[in-house]
Structures are given as structure tokens and as C-alpha cells.
TrEMBL record:
The record marks 485 as: Interaction with DNA. Residues 1-50, 62-95 are annotated as: Disordered. Residues 1-12, 62-73 have a biased composition (Polar residues). Keywords: DNA damage, DNA repair, Exonuclease, Hydrolase, Nuclease, Nucleus. It comes from Mastacembelus armatus (zig-zag eel). Gene3D superfamilies: Endonuclease Chain A. This is Tyrosyl-DNA phosphodiesterase 1. The active site is at residues 232, 460.
Amino acid sequence: MSQGSQHGKWTISSSDDDDEDLPPSGTKTNKPHRPAKTTGGQGSASPFITVSEARQAAAVSQLNPVKYQSSPSLAGKRKKEVSDSSGWALSDTDDDDGEVKVEIKRPPSPHGRLYYIDEPEDFFESSIPCLNDTYRFYLNKVTGLDRKYNSGALHIKDILSPLFGTLKESVQFNYCFDIEWMVKQYPSEDRPVLIVHGDKREAKARLVQQAQPFPHVRFCQAKLDIAFGTHHTKMMLLWYEEGFRVIILTSNLIRADWYQKTQGMWMSPLFPRLPKGSSASAGESPTFFKRDLLEYLASYRAPELEEWIQRIKEHDLSETRVYLIGSTPGRYVGSDMERWGHLRLRKLLYDHTEPIPGEERWPVIGQFSSIGSMGLDKTKWLAGEFQRTLTTLGKSSVRPEPPMHLLYPSVEDVRTSLEGYPAGGSLPYSIQTAQKQLWLHSYFHRWKADTTGRSHAMPHIKTYMRVSPDFTELAWFLVTSANLSKAAWGALEKNNTQMMVRSYELGVLYVPSTFGKVENCFPSLPSSTSESN
């Protein structure tokens, strides 16, 4: 099925983040990549590859490898430019009557290929790696990088390996799954796995069919009661012989997401089991992580998660130093408005950070892989609501307006990436939405991550932070599944008396006070990749 407009057609499929501009409830639209404008990007063509096309092509090509071609089959599609010189490249179709067709040849990607490169033998960890146990924030390994840039990074095979514990059972919360590939990442293919997903109808049937050869894989369907919501949370619950662990991450459970993209994760310590007879409040952390995780899991109202809720209650999570920030679908009033979404972030920043001298020069940075509808001008949501949250620092009554930089890859970034144009399949931004909010372009900055060697590994990671003017210190840092959308973060309704959230999301917040920092900021996280340019 295809969706048509004056700008062309594309296949209705699954995207990484739905919003109010999508088709009627129950239909998920796959959005082509609409990257940020490059410097002199008027002649640049946008990579017109949908998420499903890119991922399916990669899967097929992996089974039937072909030689790399300098002129990929996807090159040379016709494009037309927006007449307002915004730099967006729009798809052309064969049924646009009365229009002059202009052939614009897209330059080839220097690195992109139509098949996967196998990881080298020393890519995966053979012994316990040297990791940053203070912040426990890690990047994913990227195939094709110099080995030094993967030092301290993790692949899913590393995470699930016996190096971190003797795995008995696990839960995988995610948006997109390749069940066969996922099962192969486990050291043993018969340990029970529960899949928490948001698929419905045909998509759910396909997912269940994928798992037929694997009787140890079970399913839990997340309730999505509000239109256009998605189950976008990415979390692993790992139960070991030795204890329990939580991993909150940004990667889907498909090979492409663990291959040549920049991704991030927070990995908890190994939580030990509490002594029998411990009180209900035992094992709580200074950040109330245990309480908040249990509350998040309870929001699913799913019998399949009850045994996991009980297991968490039986473990000691007191070593946790991050705050949990989740989104769950619903309309919230009163004090419940601050339980989820960006108002939850605002409350934590109000309660647990302090004003910084000269903070008006400390920019807010948002970095994401998908953009939703935010209204005809910035006052509708971005500046009027979300920016107020991101600029909160303590209980100061005076709130200066610092710069806000939004990082999103340009067409040229995608073209020259390790994946080439197919990387655009994981950077969805619908054309109708983009044309309605051209004002957003003034916030854009290109993706750059030279310090970690990932400037050419397109970001699927989502991070938000408040940084010093010289980018050496952080007032706070958040890694999350939440993209730049009202569906993910929530939006105020009814004269600001109600908060409406459409999707499930999950992330963790770092603030200096929980890490024993008395100067109200800490050095930039060693693995942080959000450098503006």
C-alpha cells in the first residue's frame, strides 16, 4: 500500500516514531529521511530509502552478497527542490501532470555497500572488558572502525555473554525485532526470553511467525490505547544465577542497529539478591530507581511481567546512581503529570540540580534520530513547553534562555556515512511535517563525533544535555529512546492542566549530585558523542 501526496509516494510500513501527522490509528507510516540542511546543500538529494526497504535490502543482500558498486541501484532517482530554497529534497513521481522533470544525479556514497561485512575475530570480548564503572554509559561497537574506537564499547553479543553473568532468563523490550538474529546473540539458544512489543494485527502475526522455530520465546503485547503511539522503549532485564541486571539502550533488536550506527546504553551493576525477609523498602537507591522501575513495569498492566516485578523486589538496587525517566501512554492530571515524559525530567532537574554562574551561556543540546510534528511555530511546543524543561536548573526563579542546538545528520553526512544512503532509513522525518515547520531549521547542527571515531557512524542514539560553553563540563546528561516528538515526551492539554503521552519510552538521567560532585557539574562523559558543528 502506498501513501500519496503532491510530493510523491512511499510505502506504508513501520517507522521509529509516530506522531499526529500520521494516517488513521492502526496504520504505521514509514517516513523517509529528511536530514538537516548542509552548508550549501541546495543541490543535495535526500536518501529516499524507507526503514523497511533499507533493512530488508540489507537482510537479503547479506544472504546473497554482491560486489560493491560505485553507482548503487538506489542512485539517480529524480528529485525536486522546495521552491522556498529550504534545502529539502523531495521525491518526484511519474504521475505529476504538467511538471517539468529535472534529472539530478546523486553522487555515490564512498563507503556504502549492499551487504554486511563480517566482524573481525577479535571484535567480540573474550575476557571481562575494562569499562567505565563510574557512569556505566557505553557506546555500541561499530564494525569497520579502528580497534581503538571500539575499546570500552559493547556489542549485544558481549552484553549477553557469560562474561557478565550466567544468564537464566531475560526480557527484551523493544520496537523492532529480528527474532532469529536476536536468538543467535545469546550464548545458549534455549534460555527463556520474553519479548515486549507494541505490534498489532498483521505486524503481530508476522512477529509471532518469526518465533515459531524458537519455543523458548514468548510475547507480551504492550497496550497502546492512544492513537499514533508506539512501544519505543528499549530495555533488557537479565536474570542471572548471580543476580539481576538492567540495560536501557537505544538499539532495536536487528543487526543493522548493532552494525555501523552510533548507539548508546546504560548498563546497571549486577544487583545481588536481598536476604530473605527483607522489608519492602530494602534495596532502594538514592535515586529511587527501584521504585520507579517497578512503577514503570506496572504501567503495562501485563500478567506476563508480574514474575519479573517480583524478582526485582527481591534484589538490591541500591548502587544505582541514575534517575529513571519513562513515558507511558495516558492522560495525566494533578501530581501525576510529573510522573512521565518531559515534565518528569523538569521536576528532576528542578529538585536535583543547582543554578550555575553564567548559565545563560551553557547551551542545551538535543540529539535524536527522528522528528515529529511540533506545530506551525516554535511557541506551540518546542519553545513554549519542551525548551522550558531542558533549561531548568534548580529552583532559581530567574530562568535565562540559553542557546539550543538540535543535532541531526545532513544529506552529506548520510551520503558519506559507513552505511551510505541506506543509513537514512533509520532517520525518519516525514515530508509533510518538515514543510510545516521550516522554522526548525534554524536550530539544526550537523552530527560530528571525531573524539569517538563515529562521525561516519550515523546516530540512532538519543541524548539530551546541558553543556558548558567550552563543551568540557555537563550540568546534566540524558540517554533515552525518546526522539524529538510530542508523542514521545508528552504535550500539555486543557490550558496546561493535563499531560497527554502517546508512546512508551525509557531513559536514564545523570546529575552531578548523585555522583558526589559538589561543584554542580561533572566532566563530559568519556563516551559522549554529541559534538555540535
